[in-house]
């Protein structure tokens, strides 16, 4: 192995991490930036710190799975690692060109699986476990969102509300012998608590992104013994942080103000559910798609909110108004909360659409095609290029 090739491998890992930072930061911090709760620079700094924390702790399990679980570590020569990382980066670049939030984890698994098929080192049991999680995670996200939407959302909407006052949120009170933090002029305890909750949830999403996505950038290098886990996590976190401070500024603005009319409370609920599913899977060493869980949680939350127009018996019979859309979370709760089955369907059915059907179809298509193409192209590449190690 030459130093030059190792540097190319490190550069390829940094490129993947850079693009992960550009994409994941927008998902984690777009809602709070769009609501004016945090500045983009502050969001990028917090993103970097919590990605490092997530990668250093839970993310090690995912690195182990991708680096030595899916295929034998001996397959990851420096040349093979560069090829795998190139496929991951290429998949992200193509999807970004179409404006689709690609699943880096699914693309990474596909590229590594192609290497395993070509070299005869693929562990099909481990790959099967990962695919099962890919199927279960969006289902779990949908039903968690549905339960919250049907039974809890309208109550949360009445107590969790951010009405931002003018001036700073917190100031230093210098009236005493020692300066102490105090609420800013016009800041209410409810505003402070709600703002702190939104920031905490975004930090949690950043932790989840680090736990899941750090491995996508460095697992091939760690699996091949080219980098130790500690330096590899730092490398990935630094690259993700660079993406957060640069190209993520645009994605934060897009997610926060252009992607959807999803209210900040709904975005917070979706973030907690999707990040919890991703963190749990990462703890088990399973790389899954944060984006897919997020989208299905949004759909479940909206469906659950809309289903309040029907009782449980009516739901069981399928007796629900057809014109009620998943966009019901955009409807104001009002001063009182009607009982389940008593809420009118007309107001919920008139809610503005959160999704464009063609856009959702394009997203789902890329989530299916992405890992599939990565697997096929990686397999063909390693058949043609004898650069991988032998078992």
Key phrases:
391 residues, mainly alpha, 69% helix
How are the elements arranged and paired?
Blueprint: H1 3-34, H2 40-56, H3 59-69, H4 78-97, H5 104-119, H6 124-159, E1 170-173, E2 180-183, H7 189-223, H8 229-245, H9 248-257, H10 264-283, H11 290-306, H12 312-317, H13 345-349, H14 357-384
Antiparallel strand pairs: 1-2
Helix pairs in contact: 1-2, 1-4, 1-7, 1-8, 1-9, 2-7, 2-8, 3-7, 4-5, 4-7, 4-14, 5-7, 5-14, 6-10, 6-11, 7-8, 7-10, 10-11
Task: Note down, in words, how this protein is organized.
This protein has one domain. It has helices at 3-34, 40-56, 59-69, 78-97, 104-119, 124-159, 189-223, 229-245, 248-257, 264-283, 290-306, 312-317, 345-349, 357-384, and strands at residues 170-173, 180-183. By secondary structure, it is mainly alpha-helical. It has a two-stranded antiparallel ribbon.
Q: Which band does the percent of strand residues land in?
A: under 5%
Number of helices: 14
What global shape is seen?
Answer: globular
In round numbers, the mean pLDDT is: 80
Main sheet attributes: strand count, strand direction, barrel closure: 2 strands, antiparallel
Report the count of strand segments. Answer: 2
Distance between the termini: 18 Å
The order of strands across the largest sheet is: 1-2
What is the H-and-E element order?
Answer: HHHHHHEEHHHHHHHH
Number of domains: 1
Low-confidence stretches: none
Q: Give the helix/strand class.
A: mainly alpha
Task: Tell me the helix content.
Answer: 55-70%
Radius of gyration: 23 Å
Short account of what is shown:
The protein contains 14 helices and 2 strands; from the N terminus they run ααααααββαααααααα. Helices cover 69% and strands 2% of the residues.
């Amino acid at each position: 192995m030459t130093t030059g090739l190792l540097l190319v491998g490190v550069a390829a890992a940094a490129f993947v991490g850079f693009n992960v930072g550009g994409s994941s930061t927008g998902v984690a911090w777009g809602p709070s930036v769009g609501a004016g709760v945090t500045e983009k620079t502050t969001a990028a700094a917090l993103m970097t710190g919590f990605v490092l924390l997530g990668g250093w702790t839970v993310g090690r399990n995912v690195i182990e799975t991708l680096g030595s679980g899916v295929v034998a570590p001996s397959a990851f020569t420096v040349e093979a690692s560069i090829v795998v990382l190139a496929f991951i980066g290429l998949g992200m670049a193509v999807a970004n060109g179409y404006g689709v939030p690609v699943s880096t984890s699914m693309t990474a698994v596909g590229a590594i699986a192609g290497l395993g098929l070509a070299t005869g080192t693929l562990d099909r049991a481990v790959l099967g476990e990962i695919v099962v999680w890919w199927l279960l995670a969006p289902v779990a996200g949908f039903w968690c969102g549905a339960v919250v939407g049907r039974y809890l959302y309208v109550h949360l909407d009445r107590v969790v509300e951010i009405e931002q006052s003018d001036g700073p949120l917190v100031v230093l009170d210098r009236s005493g012998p020692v300066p102490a933090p105090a609420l800013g002029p016009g800041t209410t305890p409810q505003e402070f608590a709600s703002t702190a909750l939104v920031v905490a949830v975004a930090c949690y999403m950043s932790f989840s992104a680090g736990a899941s996505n750090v491995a996508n950038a460095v697992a091939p290098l760690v699996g091949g013994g080219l980098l130790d886990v500690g330096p590899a996590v730092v490398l990935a976190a630094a690259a993700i942080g660079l993406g957060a401070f640069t190209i993520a500024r645009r994605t934060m603005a897009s997610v926060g103000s252009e992607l959807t009319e999803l209210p900040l409370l709904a975005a917070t609920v979706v973030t907690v559910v999707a990040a919890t599913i991703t963190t749990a899977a990462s703890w088990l060493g399973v790389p899954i798609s944060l984006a897919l869980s997020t989208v299905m949680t949004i759909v479940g939350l909206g469906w659950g909110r809309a289903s309040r127009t029907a009782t449980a018996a009516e739901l069981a019979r399928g007796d629900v108004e057809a014109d009620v859309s998943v966009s019901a979370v955009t409807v104001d709760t009002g001063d009182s909360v009607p009982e389940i089955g008593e809420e009118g369907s007309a107001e919920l059915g008139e809610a503005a659409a959160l999704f464009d059907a063609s856009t959702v179809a394009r997203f789902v298509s890329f989530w299916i095609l992405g890992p599939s193409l990565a697997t096929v192209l990686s397999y063909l590449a390693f058949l043609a290029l004898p650069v991988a190690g032998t078992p």
